Amino acid sequence: MNLLDLPQTLIQDILELLPYDEVAKKREVCTLFNYLGQQILNKGFNKIIMAHAKNFKRIKSMLPRRESERRNHILSRHSDILTSIETRISMLTMTYSKFIDLNICCFIPGRVLDEINSILRILSTSTKQLRPHEVLQELRDISSMAIEHFDEKIAVNFKMEHRKQLAESTAAGARLVVCSALGDISFSGVRRTGISRPVDHGLVQQAIVQLAPISASKSHSDSSQKDRQYQLQRSLSQKIRLLEVSRKVQDRRLQEALSSITELTTQVSELKRQMEDVVANMPSCAVKRQAVASADCLPPAQKKPKV
């Protein structure tokens, strides 16, 4: 029995047991695996968004409302890690969601989903203080590489294919409009029958000869107007493309700035905690130093003379 002879639901259940990275690799097997893998990856991305929101809500409910107490809480670093994950999810959504909604592609980097799942699992099971830089280092690296590779290698091909399809559809529509048969439709919109009616061919030829220069001038004006419209549309499309490119560059810079801001806030919070720990341990050290200094400054004991 062949594996592909099984029902699709059973194959999908088998693939869902694998990590998302393996599902993304198994898409190369055949068209059925590609179709099922795309569905699993898209569902996995939505599941991770919901799981992150659920964990963030749970951690926020456990933290105190005051900022000073929140910084000293045990779960404060959990909140910082979840905030950094939120920025990464927003960057991935901005990169892939447009193409996923248009059914052009699926969420490709399954390894990113596995990494986010492992981090969320750590946050849900451990209550000790974590180091955000160590926990998030792998996620930052692979998510940044995935976004850059998609923007530079994959999205460009999708846009070119989409433009070709639009050009073909517009050309086909123009051909349909030109070739549409309207000879059997009257001006009232009622379809005419094929009854032959007597026609005065001499009058028709005279009318055609009289209208020939008018039609030629009209066709020339129509062609010039179409050329102007074409040039205008071309210039507008070029401007729109430039605006799209600049907007994408600005969005990428904004996301990089947001990620750097979140990283800096986590580092600042860690430094604040370390400073507070140092300040808390300062009085005991000062007392010990004062005691040692006072003992060193005592005058030497005078020896009694021997009798």
Description:
It contains eight helices and no strands. It has helices spanning 8-16, 20-26, 31-62, 67-71, 76-101, 110-125, 132-179, 201-296. The longest helix has 96 residues, at 201-296. The protein starts with 7 loop residues before the first helix and ends in an 11-residue tail after the last helix. This is GM24866. InterPro entries: F-box_dom (IPR001810), FBXO28 (IPR039719).
What's the short story on this structure?
The chain is mainly alpha-helical and 307 residues long.
Mean pLDDT: 73
| Radius of gyration of CA atoms, rounded to a whole number | 37 Å
Unreliably modeled segments = 174-199
Helix content: over 70%
Please report the distance between the alpha carbons of the first and last residues: 114 Å
Counted by DSSP, the helix tally is: 8
The proportion of residues in beta strands is under 5%
What is the element string, with H for helices and E for strands? HHHHHHHH
Number of strands: 0
- SS content category: mainly alpha
Largest sheet: none
Shape: flat
